[in-house]
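We close this part of the discussion by returning to an individual protein. Part of our work consisted of pairing the sequence of a single chain with a tokenised description of its backbone. What the numbers capture is local backbone geometry rather than side-chain detail. The amino acid sequence and the backbone structure tokens for this protein are reproduced below.
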Amino acid sequence: MNIKEQLLSNWYPMRWFMLIVGIVLGYNYLANGAAISGLLSLIILFQAVTNTGCLLGRCSPSVDYQAKTDSDLDDVTFEEIKTH
């Protein structure tokens, strides 16, 4: 996926909400000089614009689910280890 596609596609409601929150925090930084608002604004705006981060539960890694069959268990071998 190229950068233009990433910036212009998949604008779901949570992404719009985070963009608005980032803009509001940025305004708070400019109006009041609150440094924490400026930092949070940059982080949230970056996540909203690039569609990265934990927006809408996307922070969990993708899991490749494969159906396990009984034939997979037939290939298991065990080795007995005896101690004295």
User: Anything to note?
Assistant: The helical segments are 3-8, 13-32, 35-50, 70-73. The CA atoms of residues 57 and 63 lie 14 Å apart. The mean pLDDT is 80.
